[in-house]
Structures are given as structure tokens and as C-alpha cells.
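Saturday, quiet lab. Running sequence design on the C-alpha cells for the scaffold JK sent over.
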């Protein structure tokens, strides 16, 4: 029996995230404000910050990722820990998902069974990083 289409999407996800981090290294310079680096990629300013005069839960992730992509781990963590955690998680998931693939574990099916817990954990991590 072959793997599901979703298996291959999950298998590719950490590779895509790592490629995004590499692209950030070439395309951006971390914004000294600690947020707003995404504006260098043509995206608009954060409306959450404009409307509520405070950071959104993912505020600074692009800046943190840019710091990380430039090898500035301390600045990345200080800016937004979530950016560092995403990069590290992607790097760890590449070999883990490859091992699952070799053992014929359908990652798409695993995500269907355990996805709610995974999303709940992700929400807790995002909230914790927002409050730091």
C-alpha cells in the first residue's frame, strides 16, 4: 500500500521551512526595531500592531528568522523565540520524517490521528513566546 498524498506534504514541510530560512538570509536584513522585516519582502505593516498598539502573537518571527539565517542566534532568540523554535523544529523534523518515511509510517495518517494534540501544543508554544 502506498503513502497518502498528505504524507508527502508533511514530509516536504520542514524542507520548505528550511528553504524559507535560507531565502531570508539572502533577501533580508533583520529590522533593528525587532519586527517589520517582512516588509522588505513586499508585505505590508502588521495591522494588529497598528490597530491595537501592541505586538501580534507572531510579531518579530520574520526578524528572528532573519537573525537565525544570518547566524545570530542570541539576537534571534531575544527578538522572538518562536522564530528560533521553528527553525530548530524544521531542522530536527527533516531526519525524523525521513526515518518515518523509510519505516513506511504514513505521516499524513499520523497527523490525522494526532493533529489536534499537535495544534494544541503549537498554540501553547505560540502563546508562551508571545508573552515572553
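Result came back. Writing it out in full:
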Amino acid at each position: 500500500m502506498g503513502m497518502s498524498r498528505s504524507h508527502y506534504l508533511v514530509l516536504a514541510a520542514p524542507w520548505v521551512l528550511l528553504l524559507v530560512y535560507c531565502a531570508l538570509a539572502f533577501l533580508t536584513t533583520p529590522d533593528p526595531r525587532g519586527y517589520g522585516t517582512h516588509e522588505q519582502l513586499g508585505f505590508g505593516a502588521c495591522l494588529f500592531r497598528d490597530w491595537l498598539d501592541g505586538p501580534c502573537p507572531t510579531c518579530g518571527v520574520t526578524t528572528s528568522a532573519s537573525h537565525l539565517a544570518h547566524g545570530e542566534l542570541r539576537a534571534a532568540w531575544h527578538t522572538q523565540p518562536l522564530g528560533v523554535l521553528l527553525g530548530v523544529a524544521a531542522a530536527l523534523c527533516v531526519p525524523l520524517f525521513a526515518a518515518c518515511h523509510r519505516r513506511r509510517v504514513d505521516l499524513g495518517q499520523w497527523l490525522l490521528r494526532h493533529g489536534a494534540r499537535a495544534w494544541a501544543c503549537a498554540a501553547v508554544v505560540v502563546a508562551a513566546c508571545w508573552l515572553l
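Notes for JK: Helices lie at 5-27, 47-52, 61-69, 73-79, 81-102, 107-131. The two ends are 46 Å apart (CA to CA). Ask whether to fix the surface positions before the next round.
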